[in-house]
Write a structure and sequence with these properties.
alpha/beta; 319 residues; D-Maltodextrin-Binding Protein, domain 2; five-stranded mixed sheet
Length: 319
């Protein structure tokens, strides 16, 4: 009799889970952005939230939970009930932190990848006073002046920092990393010559490109970036293996019902394919991610393999 009661209770709970998943969503959704308001991730998240509201018929509340290289907001999502009502919109740093930190607040396996949203290309950009006109010039100069070229980044452990480490690993150069508290201060110092190089998206340095104070040498991508199709990639210029896609995607807690994940994936994919969304992303210097082979799980797997190698071989560990 006792077994029958337990079995009946378990069946009832299972039925309720299925029923609630089938009615999804029937209450407001929280979209956590693990960065401060005003940045690319925040803007992208708010654009997506507005369109998700229209498609899902429920309010999507955006909450900024910044700090610890995105780990504070991400950990909050990891701890949330896996019912699809607490989601995360973040960059690919989300799957890198576990290799970068000695005591990470979570692991990628604690999250459910749902859908990619957009990507931003990185470019190798230098101060115009640096006597180089190509990636080959830059590598030659760096080898002749080991440790003398300082490259800025938005902060230690961020993708712009790691792209710089990857570049050194693949080209046999030695650069000096200078972390800043954000992309803005770093690009200002790049234009002023306080640092000589950066791996960064073009929107952040567009005014300086127009002024001629900085020079774009190459795209750190597999293919030429649509924003600057005349700019060759680093690989095209003779240095294979230096590429990184800074993707943004939606994830949830581990254990989400498969039909809820499917509903969200379908909704986000439809939004990303619209002309209105594409236009808004292009204004941010981003490219909508449409029809990605293997979806977000594939991107997660590829990035973990690539960045773990870079982090391990460079001995990068943060507290």
């Amino acid at each position: 009799m006792k077994y029958f009661k337990y079995a009946l209770a378990a069946s009832f709970i299972g039925f309720m889970s299925i029923a609630s998943a089938g009615n999804y969503p029937d209450q407001p959704i929280r979209l956590i952005i693990p960065y401060a308001a005003g940045g690319t991730t925040d803007i992208l998240g708010r654009v997506l939230a507005e369109r998700l509201e229209q498609d899902l018929g429920q309010t999507v509340v955006v909450e900024n939970k910044a700090g610890a290289n995105s780990m504070i907001g991400t950990a909050q999502v990891v701890r949330a009930k896996p019912d699809g009502y607490t989601l995360l919109l973040t960059s690919n740093v989300v799957v890198i932190n576990e290799f970068l930190y000695k005591k990470p607040a979570y692991h990628a396996a604690d999250l459910t990848p749902i859908a990619p949203v957009a990507s931003t290309p990185y470019f190798l950009i230098v101060n115009s006073k640096l006597p180089v006109k190509s990636t080959a010039d830059f590598v030659k100069y760096a080898k002749e002046h080991p440790g003398d070229i300082a490259y800025g980044s938005s902060g230690a452990g961020g993708t712009p920092h790691l792209v710089g480490e990857m570049f050194q690993l693949k080209t046999g150069t030695k650069l000096l990393h200078v972390p800043y508290k954000g992309t803005g201060p770093a690009t200002i110092d790049l234009a002023a010559g306080q640092v000589q190089a950066m791996f960064v998206g073009t929107p952040a340095v567009e005014p300086f490109i127009r002024q001629g104070t900085v020079r774009v040498l190459a795209a750190a991508e597999r293919d030429r970036a649509k924003q600057m199709p005349d700019t060759p990639t680093i690989e095209e210029q003779g240095f294979p293996g230096v590429f990184a896609t800074n993707w943004f995607g939606v994830l949830g807690p581990k254990g989400m019902p498969s039909d809820v994940v499917e509903r969200l994936t379908k909704s986000i994919a439809g939004i990303v394919k619209t002309d209105a969304f594409r236009s808004r992303m292009e204004s941010l210097g981003a490219e909508p991610m449409v029809d990605v082979d293997g979806g977000l799980p594939s991107l997660v797997k590829d990035d973990q393999q690539r960045w773990k190698q870079v982090i391990d071989e460079n001995g990068l560990k943060l507290q």
